[in-house]
Write a structure and sequence with these properties.
The protein is mostly helical and about 270 residues long. It has ten helices and no strands. Helices cover about 70% and strands about 0% of the residues. α8 runs parallel beside α9 (about 220-230). It is found in: Cell membrane.
């Protein structure tokens, strides 16, 4: 059966693939060294030599944005993958096992969900530091409860179906039931949830970087590029606007893709 995507889904997929390509190959495509001062005019305008202008030190913004894609997309993708892997595993386990295990996991993760994500991130990073591994683990930890809730809600309904009850009657183990009976029937909604959670992580990472608690120099993601060039806002410098536009394009592309996937079910929430 051939999968047909709507025009909006194709547009979203194109933006997502372009974002991945820029994250992987962006530094090789940079016209200048991202850390080199190449112009004496700080907050320079867009020109043929500098298509996106220059930053507060006279560095090429196109090269800086291409470099920042590696950290924005890479950190967000890794954190989302970790969060979804843990959340899906715990949600499947709780739904299939049930009983006090389900209740204990649900109450614990509900308690974490009640804490605002940005506040929790600020507390964890302020206490543990803002290295790249800490950023990834912090954001993964924050979004595990949301993925758990979606997975458990889907899995509880599927676990009550006749084909799952038949598998239990045959004596199949819990691992078989989770992976072979329940999981294949949740792929669509979970793929949608992955995309939405990726957007949440990108926005949280950008917020932390703008506050100075995200990606630290000499590395830079798109949020930190906005922060370090915010002084150029009064000059209308493209160095402030372009990283924000990059964040917007990426998040819009992911939303277009997940909102128009065939047979999707709306997922969301933290």
């Amino acid at each position: 059966m051939r999968l047909r995507l709507s025009p909006m889904a194709c547009l979203g997929a194109g933006i997502v693939l372009a974002g991945i390509a820029v994250a992987v190959f962006g530094q090789a495509l940079s016209p200048y060294d991202p850390g080199a001062i190449v112009d004496t005019d700080v907050f320079g305008p867009m020109s043929r030599a500098f298509p996106l202008g220059t930053d507060y030190l006279g560095r090429d913004m196109l090269s800086r944005i291409l470099l920042g894609a590696r950290y924005t997309v890479g950190i967000a993708a890794l954190a989302t993958a970790l969060a979804c892997t843990a959340g899906i595993g715990l949600g499947l386990f709780a739904a299939v096992v049930g009983g006090w295990t389900d209740s204990a996991l649900s109450r614990l993760l509900d308690a974490l969900t009640s804490i605002p994500s940005k506040m929790l991130a600020l507390v964890l990073i302020a206490g543990l530091g803002s290295s790249l591994p800490i950023l990834v683990l912090t954001m993964a930890f924050i979004y595990v409860p949301g993925c758990y809730r979606i997975t458990r809600a889907l899995a509880v309904n599927i676990a009550a179906e006749d084909f799952v009850l038949a598998a239990k009657a045959r004596g199949e183990g819990r691992g078989y039931i989770m992976l072979r009976e329940v999981m294949p029937n949740m792929v669509g909604p979970l793929a949608t949830d992955f995309g939405l959670r990726f957007v949440f992580v990108v926005l949280l990472l950008s917020s932390l970087s703008f506050l100075g608690l995200g990606v630290q120099p000499p590395y830079a993601d798109w949020g930190s590029l906005v922060r370090e060039n915010v002084a150029g806002l009064s000059y209308g410098a493209p160095a402030v606007v372009m990283p924000a536009i990059a964040i917007a394009i990426l998040t819009i592309g992911v939303n277009l893709l997940v909102d128009n996937l065939p047979g999707r079910a709306r997922a969301g929430g933290r």
